[in-house]
Amino acid sequence: MWKGVLRDSEARRALDRLEQAGFKIKRLSPRDPTFHNASWADCIAAIPLLENRPSRTHFHHPVSVRKHLPLVKALRNFARQLGDPFRETRLVSTRDTTIRRDEDLPDLAERAASFIEKFLSWHWYIRERNPRNALIAELRWEIRNRTGRPYDRELSTVIDAACRAAGRKELYLDNTTLDRIEKRDRETRVKSFRRLKFYAGLSPTPKSSTRNPQKRR
Fold first, then answer.
1. Which of 9, 12, 82, 188 has the fewest CB atoms inside 10 Å of its own CB, making it the most exposed?
2. Mean pLDDT computed over every residue of the chain
3. Distances, alpha carbon 8 to alpha carbons 13, 176, 211, in Å
4. What residue ranges do the domains of the chain occupy?
C-alpha cells in the first residue's frame, strides 16, 4: 500500500511539499506491522485497514483485588521457610511432578510478593483508543511539530491515496475534521488521567473537560 501511495501523482506532490517543509517521509519504507517499532510509512499504510471505533477507558481500583492480599503474606512465609536450614520443603506441581528446589527461589518468592503488594495497591486505567484516528492524530501532531504547520491538505491527500491503494473507500479529511480528531484524542487522554487522579485521591474533582488541552500534551 505504501508503494501505491508513492505511485499516486497527487500523493507524491503532497509528500514533496511535506519534505520541503521538514517532514521527510517519502524515502521511508514500512518496517514493523506490529507498531512496536513502526515508521511513519507503516502508519500511513495502515490507516485504511484500522478500525474506526469509539475510544473506551477501563479503570482498575485496588478494592476489586483486595481479597488477594493474603497471597503476599503466603509468599513471604514461603520464602522465609525455604531459607530455614532446619525445615524440609518439597515442591510439587499440579501434575505431581517434583520441582527442583533452586537456590534463588526464596529471593524469587520475596520479589514476587513485593510486586504483588504494589500491584494490589495501584490505581490504573487502560484506554482503548480509536485505532484509525489515533494514527491520524499522531501524524498531524508530528507534522506540526516538525514544520510549524499541520499541512492538512497534504496529509489528507496522502491518507486518501493510501485508501485507494488499499481498495477502500476514499477518505478525504478537511482541516475541521482533522482538528476535531486530534483534539478528541488528546482530550480523552486528559480526562482519563484526571479521573484516575480523582479515584486515587490525588485530585478533588474529576474535571470533565479541558479548555486548552494542547498546552498539556
1. 9
2. 82
3. 9, 25, 40
4. 2-58+125-216, 62-122
